[in-house]
Structures are given as structure tokens and as C-alpha cells.
Amino acid sequence: MTIEEAFGIVIRRLRRERNLSQEKLSTASCLDRKFISNLEGGKQQPSLVSVFALAGALNSTASSLLYEAEFILRINMPEKLRADGGCGKIDWISSMEIMMNNGHTCYQGSETILVVDDEKQLRDMLSDFLVSYGYTVILAEDGQDALEKYKQNHHDIHLVVMDVVMPRKDGLTCFRQIKELHPEAKVLFMSGYRPDHLQAKENFKMIQKPFSPVEMIKAIRQVLGEGTPSSDS
């Protein structure tokens, strides 16, 4: 069984319990009906953004959706992969990595990442996700907070993962100010916009929403692998 199939089972069950058609769930979550149909059929990988959208529409939480998918994966996982035994919670990201990469955790790291997003749930989920891969995470709630955290911790921070549209100070402004302090700083943007729509002159790295957790960790490893930033301020 794959993470797509397990997640589809969870969404299908909750939708029926709440007496929602796929059309109504599509309207409530602002997700395309075909996307939901493919998701329920196990043909679509859930993205971080879609998990939160579905959780809100189904009057649930993102963590409960993922934990139920974890449980389904565990009880359907081949015996040889249940190395930890018992019935404790397994990590959702690790489960997906096993299913998609045959158990090879090639995206582990030990670097420190500053995660910047004005949505607390997404910040916390990204933090849990990155910590599960070995990273140290510092959280900031917007561009202003990120700039202050960066100034305090720039010797330790290897990468900034940042949303574009945020209150107080947007991601692009924060990006430029961080670059003024540390020209070799590495920044990866998360955005629903295409780079050309942002009308920015800088050449920056971006992962476009919605993205899957595996796409995110691949992008992080790619940016981190592009040379080593200086620790001078």
C-alpha cells in the first residue's frame, strides 16, 4: 500500500461520514474536484497545502488525517518493514520515504533551517517534517521576525525556507535585507506564484505550491548542495 492509497481511504471515509459529495468537498476546500477524485482513488499524492485545506473542510486537523493514514500504512505494511514493532505511531514522512524510495533515506541532513511562514499550522508541520529528517529548525512568523532571527543566528543558519506573501514584511523584502547582511545566504521560497509573476529582478530559488513533502526535501537538499555559505556577517 502507498501513502496515496492510505490517504485516499481517510479522505473518502471522512467525506462520507460528513455526508459531503466530492463537489461539496471541492467547494469547501477550494481544491479541484478531479484532484479530490484522484486523491480518494489513491492516484494523487497529497501536498502539504492540500492536507490543510481538506482538514479544514472536513472539520478535522491535518495531524489527525496524517496519523490515521500512518495507522493504515502500518497495518498494511509488509512484516519486514515493521522494524520497530508494537503499535506506536510511525512517522508519516518516513513511511512515504519507504514507499517511494524503497527505504533509502537519501535526504537526511544535520543543517539548521530557518522556516518562515505566517500560518502557524504550516510552520509547525514543516518543522516536524524537517526535524524528522535530522535538521535543526528555527521558526519565524513573518519577514520581520525572520530578519531578527537571522541576525541573531546567522552563524548557524544554513538555509532560509520562506513564504512570499506575509504581513509586516513580505518574503522578497526580507530576502533582499538578508542578502545585504550576508550575500551568500541561501533562501528557498515557497509560493503559489510563478517567479515571473513576482516581478523580482533577483535570481532566487522557489518551490511552487502545492508541493509534496518529498518535493520539498529534494529542493532543500538541492539548494543546500550548491556550495557552502560563508559564516561572516
What does this molecule look like?
- The chain has 233 residues and is α/β, with parallel strands linked by helices.
- Helix content is 48%, strand content 11%.
- The protein contains ten helices and five strands.
- It has helices at 3-17, 22-29, 33-40, 48-57, 62-76, 92-101, 120-131, 143-153, 171-181, 213-224; strands at residues 112-116, 136-140, 157-163, 187-191, 205-208.
- Strands 2-1-3-4-5 form a five-stranded parallel β-sheet, sandwiched between helices.
- α7 (120-131) links the parallel β1 (112-116) and β2.
- The longest helix is centred in the N-terminal third of the chain and has 15 residues, at 3-17.
- It is elongated and about 55 Å long.
- It starts with a helix and ends in a 9-residue tail after the last helix.
- The model is unreliable at 78-104 and 229-233 (pLDDT under 50).
How is the secondary structure organized here?
Elements: H1 3-17, H2 22-29, H3 33-40, H4 48-57, H5 62-76, H6 92-101, E1 112-116, H7 120-131, E2 136-140, H8 143-153, E3 157-163, H9 171-181, E4 187-191, E5 205-208, H10 213-224
Parallel strand pairs: 1-2, 1-3, 3-4, 4-5
Helix pairs in contact: 1-5, 8-9
